[in-house]
Amino acid sequence: MEDLRVLLKLARMSILEEFEGKKLIDKEEWIKKYPFLAEKRACFVTLKMKDKPRGSNLRGCIGSILPYRPLIDDVVANAKAAAFEDPRFPPLTPEEFERVKIEVSVLTIPEKLEYEDKEDLMRKIRPGVDGVILQLANHQATFLPSVWEELPAFELFFAHLCMKARLPGDCLMYHPTIYTYQAVEVEEEE
User: Which residues fall within 8 angstroms of residue 136, CB to CB, at 6 or more apart?
Assistant: First the structure.
């Protein structure tokens, strides 16, 4: 794929547009220069505070699971949403914007993972490689592949994913539907 580092600049400019209250991104120019931005792709934009320790530095993360709009639109919308609409955090301030590191993850299309039981799931899931979507009744949550860095143990990863879906930590016993996907990730330098 193309040099995805341009997505970082695009995400940063998207947030800056909100602070400056004016348009900084000429969509046609960007697509002319980087044609892959016109492809329908899904992405997540993650904001992390540079001056906080790993594990407690998340400042916002919003994304799309399925591709339904051009990548340029997905990056712009998700960057703004991660900065200003993540319900877990107050809107990003200009002062924080200077100290935030941006990561963009471009996702593959999720595929349903058939499994017999928890042990079978444990054999089939690839920690550090697979992002996971967990669905049970009307509950759903996802963790990007990078979450394995914070929660490297299968049990811990899935307990947190169940709780993120507002389910009990042992929700695997109810055999939820599992989808997996992979992500190509780029992040700003420290």
Answer: 165, 167, 171, 174, 176, 177
